[in-house]
TrEMBL record:
Residues 1-23 form the signal peptide. InterPro entries: TPR-like_helical_dom_sf (IPR011990). This is Bacteriophage N4 adsorption protein A. Keywords: Signal. Gene3D superfamilies: Tetratricopeptide repeat domain (1.25.40.10). Pfam families: TPR_16. It comes from Pseudomonas syringae.
Length: 249
């Protein structure tokens, strides 16, 4: 049986090969050079080398200005440096609500103890619910553990407490992209082993999350063809080609 013309366009208009050779996730914040420099800042802070910690954190911030945990580190390093240099004055200074738990959250994060960091961040938020820094620390720690549903819930809670924030909007989008990539990677694996039903389901979820991402639409068309659902594959291909700026008629 000859396939509809629209499906034959897939050979040239929509490559059905997977762009994922294996399961992939989008880079989490503070990867690459910024991550390496940030680690140097954390290690310097743990050594009580506050000047170096501040310098390295500022250097990393120049590469990733949206990394709120680095601003937390700078604030803590500046405060601890002051307490070290002015012990009498520091003794009389009472920490702000959430500071001690926030400090512990940051230290745990520096040790890559993301579960502990999330736990301390939650306690800091309970003491200072209007602190965006503590909320971002929680979101970051959850995201590092791939607890993406919890991270999205934490973003929703933060918006309810603080109102719309650009940094929260950007983080939600990054997490949604990561979820979609995970779905697509699972879909390609299912397609490779002949589990076409799972492949279609995962591809639909990925397309639903990011309808403008061509790779997810290619996966959906490929899975539908493999399942023999040519009418639905034709419809999906038409939408994909239209999105790609091609005339599918």
């Amino acid at each position: 049986m000859k396939r509809p013309f629209i499906l034959s366009l897939l050979v040239t208009g929509l490559s059905l090969s997977s762009p994922f050779s294996q399961a992939e996730t989008l880079p989490l914040p503070l990867t690459g050079p910024a991550y390496a420099i940030a680690n140097e800042a954390y290690m310097a802070y743990n050594r009580k080398d506050y000047d170096l910690a501040i310098a390295k954190a500022n250097e990393a911030l120049r590469q990733r200005a949206d990394a709120s945990q680095l601003r937390d580190l700078i604030a803590l390093a500046e405060r601890d440096k002051y307490r070290r240099d002015h012990p009498q004055r520091a003794y009389k200074t009472r920490p702000k609500p959430g500071y001690l738990e926030g400090n512990q959250a940051l230290r745990a994060y520096a040790r890559h103890d993301y579960n502990g960091s999330a736990s301390h961040a939650r306690k800091a938020i309970a003491q200072a619910p209007k602190s965006l820094d503590y909320r971002m620390m929680l979101i970051e720690a959850l995201q590092r553990q791939q607890r993406l549903d919890e991270a999205q819930t934490a973003i929703n809670d933060a918006e309810q407490a603080l109102g719309p924030q650009p940094v929260l909007t950007r983080r939600r989008q990054a997490i949604q992209e990561q979820v979609a990539v995970d779905k697509a990677a699972t879909g390609y694996k299912a397609l490779a082993r002949g589990d076409n039903e799972t492949a279609v389901s995962e591809a639909r979820d990925a397309v639903r999350s990011f309808p403008k991402q061509m790779a997810y639409r290619k996966l959906l068309v490929s899975a539908l063809i493999a399942q023999g659902q040519y009418a639905e594959a034709r419809s999906a291909a038409t939408e994909a080609l239209a999105l790609n700026g091609n005339d599918a008629t």
